[in-house]
Design goal:
Elements (H helix, E strand, L loop, with lengths): L22 E3 L8 E3 L2 H28 L4 H26 L4 H29 L11 H27 L15
Length: 182
Amino acid sequence: MDHSGHHHATPEPTPPSGHEHVHHATESAGQDRLPVATWPMAAQATLHCLTGCAIGEVLGMVIGTAAGLSNLATVVLSVALAFVFGYALTMRGVLRAGVDLRTALKVALAADTVSIAIMEILDNTVMLVVPGAMDAGLANWLFWVALAGSLLVAFVLTTPVNKWLISRGKGHAVTHQYHHGH
């Protein structure tokens, strides 16, 4: 086969794996380096946080609704479980990096507290303001649509907060040093 007419292009760079690393920018060698936060990085951090929040939130809403708990008790249960699952997912990754349990907990608290708190305020507010959503019951489509919508609102409105936190070396940026295997 004659390949003389074929032109070999420079290979395209490999796209990111989804676990973007924090890049640092400095104006001078003596200044502290602040992470450069990108929107994809912020979305990834928010999605990570939302995963734990959603597990806890859905579980809390399902348990509270199935048990006939009051709206307040259901929200409290959902918030507590969202924090537990959110922290647990972060700790799982940090523990895989070989750190002790106490350090992993400190990292999870620093990485996720603000993000989870904002998400919980947003998604529970949506559930409470959608007429009938909290009282709809597990078999009613309104419950599930409102819950899915509440998590979407939480994701969209928390992503800019996470971008801001990462750009200041806070939030998800504190987990960066533990992502060696990603």
